[in-house]
């Protein structure tokens, strides 16, 4: 079982389910009866190319409002749950770009760092309500534009549309 060979068609199916349908490796494993680790190994490089959402939101826990930056392959509302107050922006870019930009934002605005309560998923990616959020939006847009120029990529992969609420 450990040395089983898979066909190019198997790999293409996994990639299609992962990239186009947005399924997780665990979901693909359940559908195909191939081990999760085997699928993860094959899809590791594909993961970097997969489109992802970088989001910037306002959350509230008890009486505390705060900002959060994060990434998700899924719906931002589902990711943030009952704590979501407002979606400020969503950028659709590659996973690799999301990770890079998110890290830059966390470093640039670290003086506003806020460690949210344990109930908040991604609680170390939060900021105090005093964060200059318009500056963050500008910074994100500039970082994404810079990535597009640095990598010579064009289109929605790197310049995803922003959704405001």
Annotate the secondary structure layout.
Elements: H1 8-20, H2 25-32, H3 36-49, E1 51-61, E2 64-72, H4 76-80, E3 84-94, H5 95-108, E4 113-114, E5 126-127, H6 133-151
Antiparallel strand pairs: 1-2, 1-3, 2-5, 4-5
Helix pairs in contact: 1-3, 2-3, 5-6
Order the strands across the largest sheet as they lie in space. Answer: 3-1-2-5-4
Mean pLDDT rating: 84
The helix tally amounts to 6
**Rg computed from alpha carbons, rounded to a whole number of angstroms:** 18 Å
Q: Element order, helices and strands?
A: HHHEEHEHEEH
The overall strand count is: 5
Description:
The chain is of the alpha+beta class and 165 residues long. It has 2 domains: 8-49; 51-157, no CATH class. Helices cover 44% and strands 21% of the residues. It contains 6 helices and 5 strands, in the order αααββαβαββα. The protein has helices spanning 8-20, 25-32, 36-49, 76-80, 95-108, 133-151, and strands spanning 51-61, 64-72, 84-94, 113-114, 126-127. Strands 3-1-2-5-4 form a 5-stranded antiparallel β-sheet. A hairpin with a 2-residue loop joins β1 and β2 (64-72). The longest helix has 19 residues, at 133-151. It starts with 7 loop residues before the first helix and ends in a 14-residue tail after the last helix. Mean pLDDT is 84; it is low at 152-165.
Which keywords apply here?
alpha+beta; 6 helices; 2 domains; single chain; five-stranded antiparallel sheet; disordered C terminus; 165 residues
